[in-house]
Amino acid sequence: MQNRIKGSDHMCFGCSERNPIGFKLKFTMDGDICRTEFTAGEEHQGWNGYMHGGLIAAILDETMAWWLWLKDISIMTVEMTIRYSLGVPVHTRLRVESWCEEEKRGKLFHMAGQIILPDGKVAAKARAKFMKIDPAQF
Ligand SMILES: CCCCCCCC(=O)SCCNC(=O)CCNC(=O)[C@H](O)C(C)(C)COP(=O)(O)OP(=O)(O)OC[C@H]1O[C@@H](n2cnc3c(N)ncnc32)[C@H](O)[C@@H]1OP(=O)(O)O
């Protein structure tokens, strides 16, 4: 899976440059925080003017996953909850960040992530568990 994710033929909805309908997110590690930025368009709406909640979940999922991928840890999401505190407006530059809260036996990672509006308010916060997997099995 690692090669498929990082190789030139991967089609990940979150991060592939080749996926025509994907987010095409790019990630950097800033100390122990994984960061990306995103601006939602009309096509990402749920309620008029606001981003769809399922797509917000996808961005948070991807950003938490990349904290682990950037450390060469192959994982899959096994659980996620999200607190949606504020609507996420379209056509607005969003900051997204993730971090690790706890690692259990090197196999289960308790992660967190959040979407921050330009005024610094947290619009959505996720907590999720990621399980280490053997990439050869996928
Ligand atoms: C660049 C990266 C982008 C990637 C995209 C972003 C990430 C994603 O969205 S991944 C896609 C969504 N996730 C999935 O499709 C995962 C589907 N799940 C699976 O395939 C399997 O459950 C898999 C492979 C992860 C684990 O299967 P398996 O090895 O059989 O695990 P299983 O035996 O059930 O559990 C192993 C251990 O973890 C524990 N566990 C499982 N789930 C949880 C959980 N949610 N919380 C706590 N513990 C858990 C089990 O209790 C068990 O514990 P123990 O070893 O002590 O008995």
From TrEMBL:
Q: How does it sit in the membrane?
A: Peripheral membrane protein
Which residue range or ranges hold the Thioesterase domain? 48-105
* Main localisation: membrane
Keyword field contains Signal: no
- What subcellular compartments does it reside in? Cell projection, Ruffle membrane; Cytoplasm; Membrane
Task: Tell me which EC number(s) this protein carries.
Answer: 3.1.2.2
- Under the cellular component aspect of Gene Ontology, which terms does the record hold? cytoplasm; membrane
* GO MF annotation list: hydrolase activity
What's a Pfam family in this record?
4HBT
Listed Gene3D superfamilies: Hotdog Thioesterase (3.10.129.10)
Highest rank taxon of the organism: Bacteria
Keywords per UniProt: Apoptosis, Cell membrane, Cell projection, Cytoplasm, Fatty acid metabolism, Hydrolase, Lipid metabolism, Membrane, Transit peptide
Which processes are annotated in GO (biological process)? fatty acid metabolic process
Report if keyword Cytoplasm is assigned. Answer: yes
What is the enzyme's class at the highest EC level?
hydrolase
Q: SUPFAM superfamilies, per this entry?
A: Thioesterase/thiol ester dehydrase-isomerase (SSF54637)
Catalytic function, reaction form? (5Z,8Z,11Z,14Z)-eicosatetraenoyl-CoA + H2O = (5Z,8Z,11Z,14Z)-eicosatetraenoate + CoA + H(+); (9Z)-octadecenoyl-CoA + H2O = (9Z)-octadecenoate + CoA + H(+); octanoyl-CoA + H2O = octanoate + CoA + H(+); decanoyl-CoA + H2O = decanoate + CoA + H(+)
Instruction: Name the family.
Output: Belongs to the THEM4/THEM5 thioesterase family.
The name on file for this protein is: Acyl-coenzyme A thioesterase THEM4
Organism of provenance: Desulfoscipio geothermicus DSM 3669
